[in-house]
Every structure is written in structure tokens, then in C-alpha cells.
Amino acid sequence: MVARALACLWIALSLAALASEASAKPNIILIMADDVGYECFGCYGSEQYETPHIDRMAAEGIRFEHCYSQPLCTPSRVKIMTGLSNVRNYSAFSVLNRDQRTFAHRFKEAGYATFVGGKWQLLGAEHYAERFRGKGSWPEQAGFDRCCLWQVDRLGERYWNPLLYIDGQNRQFAPEEYGPEIVTEHLLKFMQENRDRPFFIYYPMILVHDPFEPTPDSDSREEKNKTQNFRDMVHYADKIVGRIIAETEALGIAQETLILFVGDNGTHRGIRSTLHGRTVRGGKGETTDAGTRVPLVAYQPGTVPGGVVNRDLIDFSDFVPTFQEAIGAVTPAELDGVSFAPQLRGEAGTPRPWMYCYYNPRPEKSKPQRFVRDQRWKLYGDGRFYDVENDPLEQEPLQIRNQAYHKLAAALASMPAEGQTLLRFAD
């Protein structure tokens, strides 16, 4: 009897220890809007767009002033998912090489349930050239247990009448059904089903990429004004963020859940926005601030301090090491990123002194652009040097060779100058 009682006690203590370990691991939700720069959010100073839920995240969390993406979608996605510079692992547009370890793989190894919803564009879908088609990664190969995605192996519509890939099957929805709404419903259901275990959700939103179409909340489904529709799409993306926050509260897991909101690159070049009294033209695809400077807001009640504006440099390669530290996992030395997990706790951390961008979205036919920068200064591989704080459009290259120039020149020399110029894929 005594032995049996001791055995039961040992089992109970073991289960309690496992439960405690699981509860100590935060849920993490990474929301990444498509084609929207920092100038489109109230918390960054915009009075043009309605973003109350993201503004609330900033007011009750941390707003980062200097987060930089790649200038275009696939390069940004490859970088944020792997923690590596594009110079090391980017080989073709719409392709994530199958040999890459993503943040989802690492979360699964740590016992997390994983979900991805929104826009994939990493396999090489049916509409791409044959040499790219199917050469990338399926979401299941990239470490995700569940998914609800647009553009995996097939294209179809993304907004109204969408074609979505859901847990291994393509499904055609009706003309009155809205793609972002369907994705969000699947995401919320995943949260409900996994509320008692740690989970990781990656939500690379379908919104707010063109075509600029009315949303379910628009005054008219027939609206043709692209600027008005873009505003409505930004507002609807913000509404979805609010629904996700509300669901963490309804499930009682708000304090255990870190939510990050970021953009994947600058706004579409056809969009003009007003920020602090000046007009900002969208810079998607360009290496200027308009193409690479994106919003980053972090929110977790009780852990992330409220009302903080942080000026540290954040690069897209930093998300993987940040997540590794947040869940108590070892960060591989080969990653290019620097963890900003201490900053999320209100600590100083070890901010990166510079960030490196290698940009070559079509390596089979284009030549790479590369630069290093800090919060103020920027040096390109061809020698152009800018004070981007005072010259954000990069119209006046500097001839001076100050201390900042020499720092950035040394940084540029420390990184590879050539990436994958030929397609290379794992079998």
C-alpha cells in the first residue's frame, strides 16, 4: 500500500511539474500584415487610418520605432521564418527551400501546437514558371500542424470567392464569403482547441495586399475607389487583430500570450498616405525606408510593459532567436538574428548596432542590392552613404567619411556579398 501510494504521489508530482513547465511557456501569436508600412497606423502618428486595436496594443505594450523588413514579401517571409539573412538561404521568388528549419519546427520541438493562416506563397504555385513550381515548401513540411492558407499550390481569389488550402485540401468558397474572415475563424478555433497547451500561431495576413477591394464592413461592395478601399482594408485588418486579442481574454489566456504585430514590407507604391503633415508614397519593392521600415508592436499583459516606445534596431532575422529565448530554448549560433526578448520584458537587452539587408528577389535574372544601416546612417554595397534620418528618400549621398561610415563599412565587410545565384533545392 505504501509503495502504491508513493508511486501515485510520484506520478501526481510529475504531472504537476509537466503542467507547470507547460504553463511557463508563453503562447506566441505573430501577426504579419501584407504590404503596409509604419505610416498607416495611428500609434505611429497617422490620422488617416483607423487602427484602434493596434493602437491599444501600443498604448498597453511596446511600439518599436526601428523595425526593418526586406523590401518584398517572399524575401521577408524567408528571413523572418528562418532567422537567416537572405544571402544565406534565398533562392527564388515564391520559394522557401525545403531544407530550411523554420520557427515552427523549433516550436514543435519545444512541445508547441503550431498553426499558420493567411498567405503562404512559399511552395511555387501553379501560375509560376515550371522551374519554380512546387520547388519550395508545403506548410506541413515547414513545421505547421494545422493551416488555412491562400496560394499554396493553386492561386484562386484571396478576398471574395476565395480558394483556400485547409489542412491538406484545397477548398473553393462561395462568392459572398470573404477569405480573411474564413482564415480568422480557423485561427480562433485553433486557439480554442489548444487553450490548455502552449501554441504558436503565425498569421501572415492576406490583407492589405492589392487588389484593393471592399471589405465586409465597407459601405458598398461596388466601391471602386482604391484609396477608400485600402483604408477599409487597413481598418478590417485592425479589426481582426482586435478579435484575436478579445479571444485570448475570453479564453483566460491573455497574460500567457505574447502577441506581435508587424508588416512584411512597405505599402503598395500606388498608395499615398499623410504622416506628420507630409505625404508618404508607398515604397514596396524599394530599399528606402518607405519599402523596409515597418510597424512592430508587442503586447502581453503583465509581461510586456505598457506605453513604451523603443528605438532599438530590429531586423527580421531577430524573431527566431527572440522566440527561442522566450520559450527557454537554445538559440543556434549560426542564426543571423539577435534576440529582443529582454526588451519585451522591459530590460535593456543587447541591441544590435547595425542590420544587414541582402535583397535579390529574382536571383535568376536580377543583381543583388545590399546595405547596412543603423537608426540614422545607411551604407550601400556600391558605396552610397546616406543620413536617412534627415534624407529618408535617399536623394543626397554623402561624401563624408565619419565614424558611422567606418562602423558600417566594417559591418558590410563582415557579411557575405553573394547569395544563391542559381536555384538550389533539397531533394
Task: Describe the protein's architecture and organization.
The protein has 427 residues and is an alpha/beta fold. It contains 11 helices and 16 strands. The strands form 3 sheets. Strands 6-5-4-3-7-1-8-11-2-12 form a 10-stranded mixed sheet, sandwiched between helices. Strands 13-14-15-16 form a 4-stranded antiparallel sheet, with helices on one face. A two-stranded antiparallel sheet has the order 9-10. A hairpin with a 4-residue loop joins strand 15 and strand 16. Mean pLDDT is 93; it is low at 5-23.
Helix-strand blueprint:
Blueprint: H1 2-24, E1 27-33, H2 52-59, E2 62-68, H3 73-82, H4 86-89, H5 103-109, E3 113-119, E4 146-150, E5 163-166, E6 169-172, H6 179-193, E7 199-204, H7 226-250, E8 257-263, E9 272-275, E10 278-281, H8 289-292, E11 293-299, E12 308-315, H9 319-326, H10 341-344, E13 355-359, E14 369-373, E15 377-380, E16 385-387, H11 403-413
At CATH's second level, what is the architecture of the largest domain? 3-Layer(aba) Sandwich
Structural class comes to alpha/beta
Distance between termini? 57 Å
- What overall geometry do the principal axes of the alpha carbons give? globular
Largest sheet: 10 strands, mixed
Question: How many beta strands in the DSSP annotation?
Answer: 16
Number of domains: 2
Supply Rg: 22 Å
Report helical residue fraction. 25-40%
Unreliable stretches (pLDDT < 50, length at least 5) are 5-23
Strand content: 15-25%
CATH fourth-tier homologous superfamily of the largest domain: Alkaline Phosphatase, subunit A
The chain-level mean pLDDT equals: 93
